[in-house]
Design brief:
Order of helices and strands: HHEEEEEH
Oligomer: single chain
Radius of gyration: 17 Å
Number of helices: 3
Strand content: 25-35%
Shape: globular
Length: 127
Amino acid sequence: RRILDAFEAFVQRIPLVAAIYGGTKRFLSVVKERPSGVQRVVLIPFPSSEMRAVGFVTRLLDDESSGRKIAAVYVPTSPNPTSGYIELVPLDLCTPTDWSVDEAMSFVITGGANAPGGVRFGAPVGA
């Protein structure tokens, strides 16, 4: 534990590395905790309605104008999942998967080469 603490203290002294390391550490802690009542790993229509991107629901929000549930979805880029996009997507447009966070991360990091056997690509549940 002391070695890890010393390493973190060292990393925190390097400005650019500290920002990347700190951001990655915060992201991983958020991804570990699943938002209540929602599947963590989802597919969203991105970058077009005919395509799907693997994303991680990080938070649910309420649309103040319609009352509709909106998912904050982090869409990581491959092969570096610490870079990506935050998309606000109506929850009913998110297609749930049965993938674990580890399976989804492996899929992203390997550029899709390491994928579970199947995926529900069609319309989201409830759509």
